[in-house]
Amino acid sequence: MPDQLRSGLMAAATTAADKRAAFRAGLNSGRIQRLPGAFNPLVATLIQQLGFEGVYVSGAVVSAELALPDIGLTTLTEVVERGRQIARMTDLPVLIDADTGFGEPMNAARTVTMLEDAGLAGCHIEDQVNPKRCGHLDGKAVVPVDDMVRRLRAAVSARRDPGFVICARTDARGTEGLDAAIDRAKAYADAGADLIFTEALADAAEFAKFRAAVDVPLLANMTEFGKSELLSAGTLEDLGFNAVIYPVTTLRLAMHAVEEGLAEIASTGTQSGLLDRMQHRARLYELLEYQRYNDFDSGIFTFTLSE
What we know:
Blueprint: H1 3-6, H2 16-27, E1 33-36, H3 41-49, E2 55-57, H4 59-65, H5 76-88, E3 94-97, H6 105-117, E4 122-126, H7 145-158, E5 165-170, H8 178-190, E6 195-198, H9 204-213, E7 218-221, H10 233-238, E8 243-246, H11 249-268, H12 281-288, H13 290-296
Parallel strand pairs: 1-8, 2-3, 3-4, 4-5, 5-6, 6-7, 7-8
Helix pairs in contact: 6-7
InterPro entries: ICL/PEPM, Isocitrate_lyase_ph_CS, PrpB, Pyrv/PenolPyrv_kinase-like_dom, Pyrv_kinase-like_dom_sf
GO molecular function, one term: methylisocitrate lyase activity
Cofactor: Mg(2+)
């Protein structure tokens, strides 16, 4: 194999098994694992370059990219394919949102096998009813504990690589209260979940109470404009949390910039006033590693990097 391909040209150099091992090691390291959301593989490339420990793929973002609300309209195939595209291009472990498992327990089992095949490091499955909705909206409903336990047991039984992380998400905090969410988390851990994600905890005190009650790795969701106080990664680490996701942050940043830029073009007829707010072509080429592609086969890639 050419050296360029061995070193990660066109795809990650790290195997899926090694990424899963790294994710599990990180969860048990005592250092919080920071997983910003990536809405495409290029964002995942930047997340890796900036030194984060992992990448997250949000179901809400996959829906939003399709101009759909986060109410369970996306399909397993759509989510798996976006996960595959992102996992393929980063050496970091990628955790993906698998909603409710896309159906009954047997569907949850198939979901795990497909995500394994796509190279993901892990997924989370939630206890909402179908169709689900964004975890920071009101009006959610959760299934009985026994139903979610069946989902999780099906998912765990379908796992072929023991390194693949199965995370159980509970939305019970907003519907049944914190104590009920803690009880659910314990039941889900007993069912085989490797990691617990409790959605919409209110503040540091609730995060601390959850950590004190649950003896498995925990994931925090630091999404903007939601029901949770935005805590720093250092604070969450001090509270004993093992991982934190920033699910929609990069999409919100990008869409805000795009909307402002398009509004200016619509108003002025030119983008000339926006140049200092754009990523320069040279930086984009650097992220895309144009020079390495040129070195790989100058007979095909004959462009130059000059302006």
